[in-house]
């Protein structure tokens, strides 16, 4: 590890995007906005998905040059409502029939360039790429300053140039995407079937087809970074019987392929209904119930005794934080600080980065060296739970497991069952391939226990990512290939703010620090800057984000930071 990285991590210890696209009908394309002005307030609320804007499109004109044909074709990629009929006019008859708009999408910024290609009648269009979207609607952010070149071949058709060869898919600018698409969260279960885990997708703003698109996307399963970490109540292979989900008087009627539907148990159907209902309710706001049909007949959903518990959505942490005061762990309820009953003194261990379980009965902290994580419970002495090199601040999952990662580039992640009273507590050491060579500074488990926020750095480049946690029973087995989030600066610390949002920052002892809110469903937002911020914590929502200097805690009042507590360090909510 470099001295620079060690210094940054020392600050941490001593002081503290996938987004996806759902394509409606004939497809479109999208990405989370990553450019433009940055706000200084709360992230915007959910966008209205009733937008139905038509973009003016122009058919090819007689005598148009090859370059103008290519430009006209690309600029006609907004034709969601009519299966891109204008765009197809720029193609030869054969290609117009075979061209599939939903196979791949590029999202770009700035003006694109068209130049002659290497072959006869070939041309190359070059784009400054923001992201790419595959056939399943999964978005991958592009690297900084990335470009991509698309080659097309043209031919003369009755004396007019037409495109005879081009890759499938369309291309949209960021502003066009922001107008046409809106985020929707599909909800899948955690493996215990208790928590709902959001899988953010982007839908074109046409309410008449939104319910259908949501159901179709859900039946396709979770995004790659969530596969293995979450489960769906819907069986593999089940599909819509017809491409329509009508909603009348709040009732969504979902006709599914009969055999796989009828082979499910009543309990599974109840779980399917709970999963889909919460998704439709949060996305549309007009659905009050879901009815499943097989061969146009309603299926048995059982009685009251068969009902399953509703999904726990956006599991909020308790309002109390654990903190340090005079090198001891204390409890802070937002107004006063109190000792933790029954907890032995730990000042001799020089604790830093305290953490608290969701039950409020188990605590953890880093040693001053940053090479040990200690666990402590009232009535028990503090004991080493994990050892490693330059460990991240400890993080509790809702199930009581305690997590940390080595910051030495080894890719080592450790988890231990820290629940009180567990004899011979299970511990797991994972080697995560995509973290090898990365100096990890943050690993925070989400409030549903299925994902982790990971902040790392390699060769001076910071990475903020969300990974899925794959478990067997309750035992962690691996971390999935991550979904990276676009961010500013070089963040080191991060915490969960909501079910799909995190707060990140780079600590400083003196210079102004900006905390940035990154959300899978909207553009990044920067909060007002504050000097000397070395730690942050977050309860439920942006209004419950707290910035902390060496011994003072600040809360947001409007858009300004106001001091809340003195002589308090590194306050942390459960998790």
Automatic annotation (TrEMBL):
It holds the Pfam family LpqB_N. Residues 211-303 form the GerMN domain. InterPro entries: GerMN, LpqB_C, LpqB_N, Quino_amine_DH_bsu. This is GerMN domain-containing protein. It comes from Arthrobacter alpinus. It comes from the Bacteria.
């Amino acid at each position: 590890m470099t001295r620079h990285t060690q210094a940054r991590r020392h600050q941490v210890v001593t002081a503290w995007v996938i987004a996806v696209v759902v394509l409606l009908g004939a497809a479109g394309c999208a990405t989370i906005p990553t450019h433009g002005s940055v706000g200084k307030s709360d992230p915007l609320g959910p966008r209205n998905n009733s937008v139905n804007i038509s973009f003016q499109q122009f058919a090819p004109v007689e005598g148009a040059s090859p370059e103008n044909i290519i430009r006209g074709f690309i600029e006609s990629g907004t034709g969601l409502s009519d299966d891109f009929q204008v765009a197809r006019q720029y193609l030869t008859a054969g290609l117009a029939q075979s061209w599939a708009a939903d196979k791949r999408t590029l999202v770009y910024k700035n003006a694109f360039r068209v130049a002659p290609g290497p072959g006869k009648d070939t041309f190359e269009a070059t784009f400054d790429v923001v992201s790419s979207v595959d056939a399943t609607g999964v978005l991958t952010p592009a690297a900084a300053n990335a470009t991509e070149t698309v080659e097309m071949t043209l031919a003369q058709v009755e004396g007019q140039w037409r495109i005879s060869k081009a890759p499938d898919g369309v291309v949209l600018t960021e502003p066009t995407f922001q107008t046409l698409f809106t985020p929707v969260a599909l909800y899948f279960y955690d493996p215990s079937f208790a928590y709902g885990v959001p899988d953010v997708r982007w839908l074109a703003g046409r309410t008449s087809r939104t319910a259908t698109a949501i159901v179709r996307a859900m039946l396709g399963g979770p995004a790659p970074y969530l596969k293995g970490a979450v489960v769906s109540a819907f069986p593999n292979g089940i599909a819509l019987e017809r491409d329509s989900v009508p909603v009348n008087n709040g009732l969504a009627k979902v006709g599914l392929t009969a055999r796989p539907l009828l082979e499910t148990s009543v309990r599974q159907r109840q779980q399917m209904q709970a999963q889909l209902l919460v998704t439709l309710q949060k996305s549309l706001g007009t659905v009050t119930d879901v009815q499943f049909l097989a061969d146009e007949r309603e299926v048995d959903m059982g009685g009251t005794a068969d009902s399953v518990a509703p999904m726990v959505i956006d599991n909020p942490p308790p309002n109390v934080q654990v903190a340090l005061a005079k090198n001891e762990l204390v409890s802070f309820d937002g107004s006063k600080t109190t000792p933790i009953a029954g907890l032995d003194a730990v000042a001799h261990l020089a604790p830093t980065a305290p953490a608290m379980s969701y039950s409020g009965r188990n605590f953890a902290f880093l040693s001053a060296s940053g090479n040990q994580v200690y666990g402590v419970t009232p009535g028990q002495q503090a004991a080493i739970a994990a050892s490693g090199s330059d460990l991240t601040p400890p993080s509790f999952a809702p199930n009581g497991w305690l997590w940390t990662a080595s910051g030495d580039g080894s890719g080592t992640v450790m988890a231990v069952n820290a629940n009180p009273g567990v004899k011979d507590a299970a511990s797991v050491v994972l080697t995560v391939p995509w973290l090898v060579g990365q100096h990890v500074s943050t690993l925070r488990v989400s409030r549903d226990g299925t994902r982790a926020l990971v902040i790392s750095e390699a060769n001076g480049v910071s990475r903020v990512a969300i990974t899925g946690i794959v478990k067997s029973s309750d035992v962690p087995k691996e971390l999935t290939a991550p979904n990276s989030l676009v961010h500013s600066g070089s963040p080191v610390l991060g915490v969960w703010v909501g079910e799909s949002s995190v707060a990140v920052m780079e600590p400083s002892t003196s210079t102004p620090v900006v905390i940035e809110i990154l959300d899978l469903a909207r553009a990044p937002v920067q909060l007002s800057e504050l000097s000397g911020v070395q730690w942050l914590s977050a309860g439920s929502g942006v209004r419950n984000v707290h910035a902390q200097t060496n011994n003072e805690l600040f809360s947001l009042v409007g858009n300004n930071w106001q001091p809340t507590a003195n002589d308090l360090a590194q306050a942390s909510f459960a998790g």
